Amino acid sequence: QVQLVESGGGLVQAGGSLRLSCADSGRTLSPYAMGWFRQAPGKERECVAATRWSGGSTYYADSVKGRFTISRDNAKNTVYLQMNSLKPEDTAVYYCAARKSIMRVSSRYYYPNSYDYWGQGTQVTVSS
Description:
The protein is mainly beta. 0% of the residues lie in helices and 47% in strands. It has strands at 4-7, 10-13, 18-24, 33-39, 46-52, 58-60, 68-73, 78-83, 92-99, 117-118, 122-127. Strands 2, 4, 5, 6, 9, 10 and 11 form a 7-stranded mixed sheet that branches. A 4-stranded antiparallel sheet has the order 1-3-8-7, with no helix packed on it. β4 (33-39) and β5 (46-52) form a beta hairpin. The protein is globular. The termini are far apart.
């Protein structure tokens, strides 16, 4: 059974850093792609970063380019989101997501409905 578990959220001052982790605790998932999404109160869920599990392709929202980095450890079945230079507008619940099947259209990486499995979310709060 696939269970995505996020960790690493918390409270940080503006300009600080956090690293989020997402592991498949069931160790049954062999994903095609993994993504990190966030949702702030009253806003839609948005993709901040995504990657092919086999490597080679990464995608970032314009708002986080140059500040966030998605990476993965295939041996640990874990995907990470390194967040640097955090801003108050980065405050949100962050979710990781996994897709099983091939995704040929790169723009689809940004769509929540492209993903099959979701974690429970972890809160990130950036104070000014």
